[in-house]
Amino acid sequence: MGEENKGMAMTFTLVSHLREKLSGLVENRVKTHVAEAHERERLVIEAEEARTRGTPVTVESFKAWKANFDKEMAQKKLRDEEEKLRGLTPKEREEIKKIATRFTGRQLFERNRNLEHEEDSLMEEGTVSVDFSQYDRTQAVKEDDEEDRVHFSDSD
């Protein structure tokens, strides 16, 4: 039997055997790589789900978060205002403080509901009241229209 496998027949038998073993090894490697890829993908998906799952929101946890958030925002606003005031002149700082201490229309209304009758007391010093009935805008518009028109003359 050994005599039969000499020469070309022996080479063919060895090559066939090696080819089968090599194809088996390649298949195992491919399966291993595919399994590893699936495992990595599964781990990534699990990590993403764990990241997005988070903690459930309850009334207590929301109130705690909201208090912390409001505190942070107040600190940020204070820092921003301080930064803004640093770049201003003392006169501008005083003007901003004056504006900040003035009441808004809503605050004035809530303090005194009779504002309609007391509007004269709310006017700042040096404010002049304007009587709009003295002005006629239609006349000014007509004059502007006449000036903008192009006039042609046939005298040439």
TrEMBL record:
<feature type="domain" description="ZC3H15/TMA46 family C-terminal">
    <location>
        <begin position="51"/>
        <end position="136"/>
    </location>
</feature>
<dbReference type="InterPro" id="IPR040213">
    <property type="entry name" value="GIR2-like"/>
</dbReference>
<dbReference type="Pfam" id="PF16543">
    <property type="entry name" value="DFRP_C"/>
</dbReference>
<protein>
    <recommendedName>
        <fullName>ZC3H15/TMA46 family C-terminal domain-containing protein</fullName>
    </recommendedName>
</protein>
<feature type="region of interest" description="Disordered">
    <location>
        <begin position="124"/>
        <end position="156"/>
    </location>
</feature>
<dbReference type="InterPro" id="IPR032378">
    <property type="entry name" value="ZC3H15/TMA46_C"/>
</dbReference>
